[in-house]
Amino acid sequence: MPGFLPLNDGTHLPALGLGLYKVAPGECAATITSAVGLGYRLLDGASFYGNERAVGEAIRALEQDRGIPREDLLVASKFWGEPVQSYDQAMADFEATESALDIGPLDLYYIHWPRPSQDNYVDTWRALVDLQAQGRVHTIAVCNFNAEELTRLIEETGVVPAINQVESHPWLPQHELRAFHARYGILTQAWSPLGRGRMLAVPAIRGIAAKHGCTPAQVVLAWHLALGGAAIPKSTRAERQRENLAADSVFLDADDMARLAALENGTHTGTSPDERR
């Protein structure tokens, strides 16, 4: 079972969580019940995913029907920021998320995109800082920020994000950004950690999987863990959830890591931050 990683705010985050992007509302109950039963404790959601009400219902049902306390789970959401990213809009959107989930204080809340053309991400960050001070969210974080944008947040507010969630996989390891994160104690958390499934067909990865008698997905997730980062693979299928969670039993040697490093080519499989300027 993958362990927990320390955050710079004194809390801890599971190294592997369950991504809820593109999980239909009607699939949430079965998906979350299965994942939590297998040992997942981090549920990574967002207002943009359109399934928060169903996620909240599933979490409440776990406590009522299966005796799994709400406090045993870490639940995340994100501020989308369209059409307007601002302090007031972040506060309003958080209230909508609170109402939809209806599970008490939120464990993690992120700015989903910096949207630098609006030039409001610092004020938006101040909203998250205030929400944390009010006890309505425990950990505040960002997604898809570059080093320059993170530096501005830190310099203008004095508050360092606990996490930066970015697209990362062997094609896009984000080494420079990871090094910046390390200087400030920011955890790198990968979305699209399997390259939206495209990594699973890469011959080098399939070869490493054959060598270790595991799945290609487990190889890629073991790579994330070896780099000291976190990841949120999404699957609605119990057998895949189980396989993903078992990735920490795969130990990659120096040759494996070198073969994976050679795959770097800068390819984005999801939306690039440059597409949301």
TrEMBL record:
Q: Which UniProt keywords apply?
A: NADP, Oxidoreductase
Q: Do you know which PROSITE patterns this protein is assigned to?
A: ALDOKETO_REDUCTASE_1
Q: Which GO terms describe its molecular function?
A: oxidoreductase activity, acting on the CH-OH group of donors, NAD or NADP as acceptor
* Annotated site (Lowers pKa of active site Tyr): 78
Q: Where do the catalytic residues lie?
A: 49
Ranges for the NADP-dependent oxidoreductase domain? 22-263
**SUPFAM superfamilies in the record:** NAD(P)-linked oxidoreductase
Q: Which Pfam families match?
A: Aldo_ket_red
Residues recorded as binding substrate, renumbered to this chain, are: 112
Source domain of life is Bacteria
**Which PANTHER family is this protein grouped with?**
2,5-DIKETO-D-GLUCONIC ACID REDUCTASE, NADP-DEPENDENT OXIDOREDUCTASE DOMAIN-CONTAINING PROTEIN
Q: Which family does it belong to?
A: Belongs to the aldo/keto reductase family.
What name does this protein carry? Diketogulonate reductase-like aldo/keto reductase
Which species expresses this protein natively?
Answer: Serinibacter salmoneus
